[in-house]
Amino acid sequence: MSGSALYETFVRAPLIFDHGEGSWLVTDRGERYLDFAAGIAVNSLGHSHPHLVGALTEQAAKLWHVSNLYEIPAQTRLGERLVEASFADRVFFTNSGAEALECAIKTARRYQFVEGRPERYRIITFEGAFHGRTLATIAAGGQKKYLEGFGPKVDGFDQVPFNDLDAAEKAIGPETAAILLEPVQGEGGIRDFPLQSLKRLRQLCDEHGLLLIFDEVQCGVGRTGKLFAHEWAGVAPDLMAIAKGIGGGFPMGACLATAEAAKGMTAGVHGTTFGGNPLAMAVGNAVLDVVLEPGFLDEVQRKALLFRQGLAAIADEYPGVIESVRGSGLMLGLKCAVSNTELNAALRQQHLLAVPAGDNVIRLLPPLTVTDEEIREGLERIRAGAKHVAETASATAK
User: What is the per-residue pLDDT for 2?
Assistant: First the structure.
């Protein structure tokens, strides 16, 4: 055998990181990178946060795994805290966002089944969505590049254009069970659903006996400046998937539900071996300790405004590189006038890490703990990257 032993499913940057400190990553050669990717919105509290490290190491010395055959007190506690802080009455813990979405999809179908409407299993989704990599979630996302080569698309998903509420209403039929969307699309290019649209979708679901499912895997857990992005609209879903930020870097997710929505999920109809294990629960509780601290989310909002204003100034300075700034909180996107991969490479040359997304966008997802000084440092590096791209384009044109 020659070459790597790994599946060749990732195009990896030629960087090896040895350790991290807050908003910084340090390579095996000692080079420091400002991390505004945060593991794709995962490292919500940065790297090596002392409270998370302490919680994990303390638990690791006691107990790693017992399975859900037994009571797990930290799981009960984290579930109760998420319920207290959200719309939900019930929580199911998973290992990933895709699993949280699978749980939400199954819960919605099961709800209609126990309501005496087993024909209702279809879910309406929106173009540009990304809901995971399982067979069901790639069908929900509907993107051809993720569906190609994996056989027939899993049935049960009807996709309409982004934010086209008339199309969504027309798509509702006798087999429709739910509507699923990301309040802020991440992979789709940092595209916010207008707050009025979220309110109208809530009304549509209520009028037609459907469940409203929010995918807050990327935009949840403080990323937009509130604990959950949908709170800005003043509406609540029936089901919600979270992951990424709730683990602060440890793999975990959760499906949150109202008691009504979850009433069909009885003993034996769903399960997980690793989900809700003591290690994950210790870290999840530690993340909430920090994020729910009074004033923390206010600080996220304040820092987000500082960051966005700085990005807007750079866009004004280099309109041939950056068309506009989009997003909310510390989930911001640069809509590029050049190839987003070109700008991303220029940012990496400035030792700043970002994440390409759909719609020719660069995602900027710094840790929620990023400091004002680090934001200013990041802005300088983004400005330098944009300047390099602009000068390169100018030289090429000559």
Answer: 58
